[in-house]
Every structure is written in structure tokens, then in C-alpha cells.
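re: that chain from earlier
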Amino acid sequence: MLDDLWPPPPPITVRIREACRLTGIGRSKLYMLIGEGYIETVKVGSMTLVTMRSLEAFLLGGGRADPPSRPSIRSNREGWAEDALHRPPKF
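^ sequence. v structure.
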């Protein structure tokens, strides 16, 4: 049945190394984009798979694809992180 598919369908996900090779993005930069929510991943056991949909969206958007709306450690959602850095500790 699968032998009838020619050419074979494109992959839905790829491993980190293949995502780097396909896009030309370095490993560290790719992990940074994943951490910031620009690139979606799926964990299967210890294996990290990168979705081709998110890679294409990011690249076709000129590298400006919107990250999914989710809370982030880096976000200053309520102003607490920035305030904590600029005021003296309370005792």
C-alpha cells in the first residue's frame, strides 16, 4: 500500500540535526528559537522532533513568525521580573 506512494510524502517532523541542515540555522540558534516558542517540537521519549510546519512558517515569514501565546519566563507579564531586578530586597 505504501509502495504506491511516489514520490513519498514529505516528512511531518525532522530531528534537530536535519532541521539545522535543511534550514542552515545553527544548532544553538535553533534551540533558542525553540525555547522562545518560534519553532514547535514534539518529544518522543528522549528524541526531539521539529515540526516541518513550524520551520516553514518561521522561514516563509521572513524569520518573524509569531510565537504561540504562552507564558514565558522572559515575559514581563505582570511586571514582577523587571521590578525585582531594580528594587532592593525586602527583609
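Residues 25 and 71 are 25 Å apart (CA to CA).
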